[in-house]
Amino acid sequence: MTGTAARARASGPGAPGAGAALDLLGLIRDAIVRGDYSPNERLVESDLAQHFEVSRGAVRAALMELAGEGLVEREANRGARVRAITRDEAIEISEVRMAMEGLCAAKAAERITDAEADELRAVLAQMEAAQANGDLMLYSELNQRLHHRIREISRHPTASRIVERLRNQSVRLQFRLALAPGRTAVSLCEHRAVVAALVARDRDGAERAMRAHLVSVVAALRAMDDQSIR
Fold this sequence. Notes:
The chain is 70% helix and 4% strand. The protein is mainly α. It has a three-stranded antiparallel sheet.
C-alpha cells in the first residue's frame, strides 16, 4: 500500500511527540515494512518531521538507525531513500534465515509447551482457511505470524534478533511470493510439516522442515525476475 491514504494510518494518537526517538523509529520502520513507502522512494526529513510532528533532528537520527538495519539508504547530498533489494540479495537473506530459523525451530521443539502447541495449530488452521478462501493477503500475514511465534517459542533471543532484522528487509517479498500461482498450496504443506514436528517435540524434524521450507522459498525467488520483487 502506498500514497497519502496509506501513510495516514501512521499518524494520529499513536504518533510520537518530540524526543520520543524509539517510538518514531518504530513508526517509520513499520511504515517501510508495511509497504507504505515504496522501494527507492525518497524519505524527505522535513515531510517526515511534519507528518510525525517531531523535529528534523529526530527524523535524521531515526533514518540513520534504519540505514544500519538495511531498510534505508543514505546518499551524500541526496538524502535518504527506501533501500530496494535485488533478487540475489533476497536469496542470500533467505539462505541466512535458513540457518537461523532452522536453529529456532529446533529450540522451539525442545521448549514448546502444550498451550504453545495449541496456538501453533490454531494459526495453521487459520492459514488453511485463508488459502482455501483465496485470501492471499491474510495468508501472508498469518505466515509471518507463525514464523514470529516459532521464534518466540524458541527462546533464543540472539537468533531471533538476527532473523527479525533480515525479515524486515525482505518482508515486502512475502505477498509477492504468495501471488505466484500455486505458491500458497506449496507453502501450506511446508508449514504443516513444520508445525507437526514442533508439536511432536521432534527437534531434528523441526529443523529439517524449516530448512526445507526456506529452500523452497529460495527456489521461488529464483523463479522470479528481478523487477517483480521490487
